[in-house]
Amino acid sequence: MSQNTNLKTDRLFSVDMLKAISITAVVSYHSVFIPESTYSSASYLMDILFAPLRFCVPVFFTISFLLLERSLEKNSTAFFYPVLKKRFTRLLIPTLFWGGLAVALRLLGKANQTESLLILVLRGKIFPGYYYLLVMLQFLPVFIIFNRQLGKLQNFFIVLVFQLIVLALIYLSNLRVFGTDIIIFLRSIGRPFFAYWFVYMSLGACFYKNWFKLVKLSNHIPALVKIFMLVSTSLIMIGEYNYLHTVTDRQVIPFEYAIFSCILSAIVMFICFSSIEENQIPLPLRITVKLLSKYSLGIFCINGILSLIFLQLGTHFFLGINFTFTEILAIKLISWNLLLILSLGLSMLCERIGLGACVR
């Protein structure tokens, strides 16, 4: 009983760690501020090299539902509608704010773009990462209604089977087994399509319900075995992402996360990191982890909007120049760090000026 109480009230440092790692990985995918045509010869190798970081969004979704499950358990006596209204409003505020800001910036940049803005919003492409908010809005009422069923271990395996079937059907569709209509439809919808993500609802709820078992399992796994698990998962992700490149003729969007190894990566990350305790981490790193975790929503949105602005500038200044793999890798690593620091700083600033609901 005391363990459950602690889980409900205490902040989970291992979850903060996972959020910090994941948001850092998210920023990496938005950190090349020059057009792809300037490094076309190195583009494929860059995609493959950073494929293991695709765990970031699945882990984010899993954490979101884990924390939502904890919140619902704290308020288990509350009625459905007030809980839904509160959670929906809390999520709608950053969705409308950052989406509206991105629309305004696009209108300022190109006045003739009005007709396509609605499509960009609905497809989650108004800025990189916006689809995450749209998916959460879709799943929120579903999760609140069915969270007790989703959190049961046997039900998770049922949901997992259905998700694997969906992913297999997507692969078959990309192989033109069912013709081209399904792929055209999926590409028109983009990443917000619920069928890519529903397993993470159950995974998050299941991890929360079995948190102490998960921590116990993680504690019993030696560090070298965890390293082996992480490296093996990374290699599997590289292999599957390479295969995805082949079956989609290198047109991987919007299927980058609709792959089997993304589910595996989320599970492995939780198994490997759930037992980490705050006192095991040096103080400077501990402070960094807590800041990145606290402002992860703001960083998620701000870095996507900044990446559009910087890409416009990069296109203006660097179009026509050809970069080698080494050069583009160095550019990415430098801009990755700068974008992360800038996004964190702006998130903290937003909170100070009264926009805390949009960044936390």
Describe what is shown at a glance.
Helix content is 74%, strand content 0%.
Order of helices and strands: HHHHHHHHHHHHHHHH
Helix content, binned percent: over 70%
Pick out the low-confidence regions. 1-5
Number of helical stretches of at least 4 residues: 16
Report what the structure shows.
This protein is an all-alpha fold and 360 residues long. Helices cover 74% and strands 0% of the residues. It contains 16 helices and no strands. The two termini are 30 Å apart. The N terminus is likely disordered.
Provide the fold topology.
Layout: H1 2-9, H2 13-28, H3 40-49, H4 56-74, H5 80-109, H6 114-122, H7 130-150, H8 153-174, H9 181-189, H10 199-209, H11 211-220, H12 223-247, H13 260-273, H14 283-294, H15 296-318, H16 325-352
Helix pairs in contact: 2-4, 2-14, 2-15, 4-7, 4-10, 4-13, 5-7, 7-10, 8-10, 11-13, 12-13, 15-16
Features:
360 residues, 16 helices, mainly alpha, globular, single chain
